[in-house]
Design brief:
Blueprint: H1 3-9, H2 14-47, E1 56-60, E2 65-68, E3 77-81, E4 87-94, E5 97-101, E6 107-111, E7 115-116, E8 120-123, E9 133-136, E10 145-149, E11 154-161, E12 164-169, E13 172-177, E14 181-182
Antiparallel strand pairs: 1-4, 1-7, 2-3, 4-5, 5-6, 8-11, 8-14, 9-10, 11-12, 12-13
């Protein structure tokens, strides 16, 4: 029992001392239980609605996705995406709504069912250069080139390991250095 509680009941005698000790012990158990409940509730709230990590990359499920100013249908539609499979980053969750960010940094809210866990990426969308980016046969800069892609090409991410990602799309399949992609985190492993 804490010393402060012992000091407060030191002046009591007999049965009153025992009752005071029992009451203090009961209060301390209740406080510990309450702290545990509050802590676990805060952990669940901090985790988010889906239980999945935030932030994370996902893709758009449909070729028409309304992006709203807030996490309800009462909020105005800020803009509409017209490209299925576009990678977006989930930056927050509120009930069944997800705040997403695109490669240009635009953020808004979409309903969870409009998003897919399928991993996609854009090839160097920030770059405006005209050089083509090489896909390799293996995750190695010395391996054979299987295709050359323009900046902004949308691809499915099949796997990422050791700083390289395997991409597939219409007419191409190969490995590219992970930092050249928007839709996967640096060093992230994708299976």
């Amino acid at each position: 029992m804490p010393q402060l509680a012992s000091a407060r009941i030191a002046g009591l005698t007999g049965i009153w001392r025992e009752r005071a000790r029992a009451m203090i012990a009961s209060v301390m158990r209740t406080a510990a239980g309450l702290m545990l409940v509050l802590w676990s509730g805060a952990a669940v709230a901090a985790e988010n609605g889906s239980g999945l990590p935030v932030p994370r990359f996902v893709s758009l499920k449909s070729d028409k996705v309304n992006v709203r100013a807030g996490p309800t249908k009462d909020h105005d539609v800020a803009w509409v995406y017209n490209r299925a499979a576009l990678p977006v980053e989930v930056t927050a969750e509120f009930e069944n709504w997800r705040r997403i960010r695109d490669w240009e940094g635009a953020e808004g809210w979409v309903y969870h069912s409009l998003l897919s866990g399928k991993r996609t990426a854009l090839v160097s969308p920030q770059s405006k250069g005209k050089e083509l980016l090489e896909l390799r046969d293996k995750p190695d800069a010395a391996s054979a080139v299987t295709a050359k892609l323009q900046h902004g090409v949308l691809a499915s991410v099949k796997r990422c390991k050791d700083g390289w990602c395997r991409l597939t799309g219409e007419g191409f399949d190969g490995w590219i250095e992970q930092p050249r992609l928007w839709g996967v985190y640096p060093g992230e492993k994708v299976e």
